[in-house]
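Why this split exists: single-chain examples teach little about how molecules sit against one another. For that reason, every record in the complexes split bundles all components of an assembly together and asks for one structure covering all of them. Below is a record exactly as it appears in the raw files.
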Amino acid sequence: MKGYLWPAEAAATETAGGTLPRWEAIAVEAVGNVIEFWGFKRNQGRVWALLYLRDQALSAGEIERELGLSKGAVSMLLRDLERWGVIERVRSPGEAAWHYGAETDLMKMVSLVLEQREAAFLARIREDFSEAQRLAHAAGDVAKARLERLDRMATLAEQTDRAVRAFLKTARLDVGGMFSALRERVAARRS
Amino acid sequence: MKGYLWPAEAAATETAGGTLPRWEAIAVEAVGNVIEFWGFKRNQGRVWALLYLRDQALSAGEIERELGLSKGAVSMLLRDLERWGVIERVRSPGEAAWHYGAETDLMKMVSLVLEQREAAFLARIREDFSEAQRLAHAAGDVAKARLERLDRMATLAEQTDRAVRAFLKTARLDVGGMFSALRERVAARRS
DNA sequence: GGTGAAGTTCAAGAGGTCTTGAACTATATG
DNA sequence: CATATAGTTCAAGACCTCTTGAACTTCACC
């Protein structure tokens, strides 16, 4: 949630090496912003958006040029996206280089990754609260009212858990309804 | 989502000037981590947690000492928390200094602020997508398949919107059910 | 109104994350 | 097998947010 005050015009024109049509540039930036909102890297969103909008596989070199990124950055971003199953690496006929194509909706990736993160994160927090409760009760000299507050505080983690699950359910419903045809291919491919 | 690999022991002992009982330190850090997960500052969570757990109003100086923060930082953090309505500033009898107390659940703040952020943010993204769609159609030379992909992409913002609303609803339900008694006082006070 | 303590502000700096680019590895082709 | 091109890795540094601390303002009390 850093950048929601950027000027749309600037974002659209400054960004690339220059070859992107304006409408494409705007869309690519918009996806970058949404994806950053969800705690991913802006450039992961931009790369996916470019591949998805082009409706054909591009080489790493083309992505570099279109988005003004370095070779190293593109390599790492593509790996992330591939690991999450939202782009596909294809060997094109005459070419030596791999090409990369996007077929799947990004929300799949968002909900998948958020679910993993959330699981590890909240498990840890819960342990911490349990430990704190154990110690506080053992101490003996802690006022009852404060112990109660500690108990209530521990529900913070549980509330967060429930809220995240509610979000994930919504996200998956939406994606499932709208993109079911596209998803099958990738669901089969994954793992 | 940076820090879910910190060692609980370290977090509990290193942090403060040293006066915090261990159970309190652990709980304070845990709240700091949850709040950071939601895109707030870790120290906002730590300050709120300390005040809430103490069950009495503390002065800025005490907070500084207990959490090992600077005067300036405490001043700004308290202002944020007060603006969000999760702490209260009270003038104590004999003392010259203000004291600060926490009565409300933090999830209230999380859902309130997220709602504001989300509204501004997604309105902007939607505009961007509209603009991109307008330009792409005007261009004329864009393949139909690509225009369709752009349309689908625009639903990203709408899906995000719906998912965030689902979360906010859940969060508010939880808080409402569990802390209704505490909430009234502050609801009346706000604005 | 003067005094001292509390509170606020903000430029400079600390602390993190993300990107770069050069060295390195893998792969296709003649 | 040699060569060229693609792809990967990671230390150095760019970038950006958060904290600090000193100067400044406000406030209560005498």
